Amino acid sequence: MIEVVAELSRGPVFLAGETLECVVTVTNPLPPTATSASSEALAWASAQIHCQFHASESRVALPPPDSSQPDVQPESQTVFLPHRGERGQCILSTPPKILFCDLRLDPGESKSYSYSEVLPIEGPPSFRGQSVKYVYKLTIGCQRVNSPITLLRVPLRVLVLTGLQDVRFPQEEAVAPSSPFLEEDECGKKDSWLAELAGERLMAATSCRSLHLYNISDGRGKVGTFGIFKSVYRLGEDVVGTLNLGEGTVACLQFSVSLQTEERVQPEYQRRRGAGGAPSVSHVTHARHQESCLHTTRTSFSLPIPLSSTPGFCTAVVSLKWRLHFEFVTSREPGLVLLPPMEQPEPVTWTGPEQVPVDTFSWDLPIKASLALQEAFSMEKTALLDRLFTKLISVALTVCIISTFRIHIQTGKLEAGI
């Protein structure tokens, strides 16, 4: 039996264009006291990053797959297919890299190999929606002599920052370390430059504050005024808004606001409803605030954007957008207003109306959600990023996270731990 362990020292979250580094350790777990006949031999091992795309058949009408490239691999073949046995299509992959060939391990012996690869910048972000799924994985394939290939799949989360696809990496002198005593390799210099550029663009987009006011009205008059300070947010931020109902001529009894994502299938891939297809647009609510606001002059709300969510993006098949979805319940009675208190000669009991005729209407306000700074960059470069963003950000990056994935070649059992 051979044990293969894959370690991602910088955690499983990466920015598209970053360099993934993984240490693969191959071990013969038998005790050293075992006989020499217990030596294990591996023919080869290879590693590759790929993005798997899966679409819901009831929502997305995709063209038939190419039958000239079957996904089934007979056990007698030695071709390395990282997406073998998975659902969907492999839409993006890096060139495979061979880790070793003809390796023999004695009992208790182990060897480690380093694998590094740049994550493609032109791919979609990691996303699991109701219509489509984009899943990134690092697949390590090993094969013993006269045995089928065993695959170890390490899940990854890839975040994409719009606008970095067209940016070229500058020359070496343009990204040289500021300190002559700081040594960095080529990958380190590129990652630090990418982190600096991404941070500047994120801060430029999300730090601008300007009060935007929206008049809310129905067919009978003005309900109130909604105010928000910005429309671009980072993952993990709170969407804060204010609602002024004191200037309205129509009484608002209740309102609710939901932070939602809208997943929309592109028109050329939409399945017709008459053919039994599901709706091409789906909404997911991430946070919600509801309030009874009769006789309320001013109120506010705060909705957090989950760190685990996906920023807005657009591909050839689907688009994802963020929005604030408002629902208002207003009174049809024009006289339902707050009267000033009057002095009564004797005690009086105030009661509310048992029935109030109401109207309901909704309103959608588009917003943008971008990736979070603390998730966009590798955990290993904490000190470097702190130096780069001392004047830009106040978030503290967490310590290094090591993700370990282990597989036994003989049994095929996969273990993972973080």
Automatic annotation (TrEMBL):
UniProt-listed InterPro entries: Rgp1
Pfam entry (one): Rgp1
Highest taxon above the source species: Eukaryota
Name this polypeptide is given: RAB6A-GEF complex partner protein 2 isoform X1
Gene coding for it: RGP1
